[in-house]
Amino acid sequence: MKTPAEMGIVDSEVEKRLGEGFDVVICGHVHDPRRTALSRGELVVLPAWPESPGTLWIDHGKLRFEAP
Predict the structure, then answer these.
(1) With a threshold of 0.90, does the pTM exceed it?
(2) Which of 6, 43, 49, 58 has the smallest CB count inside 10 Å?
(3) Is it the case that residue 31 has pLDDT exceeding 80?
(4) Which residues lie closer than 8 Å to 44 by C-beta, 6 or more apart?
């Protein structure tokens, strides 16, 4: 079992990727689903599977998550 701190998103790494020109950083394996607007882009954290299955769609720059 990992602690929440060990499973958490490393903010400095997200900011680093956004600073490299990416608009969105998508993460999984954290089991803390959320969408967070940041100063340079967006962080999307996917839910745990199979407990919360779904599909993340990226269409013409728009993100949409669909749960079954």
Answers:
(1) no
(2) 6
(3) no
(4) 24, 25, 26, 27, 34, 35, 56, 63
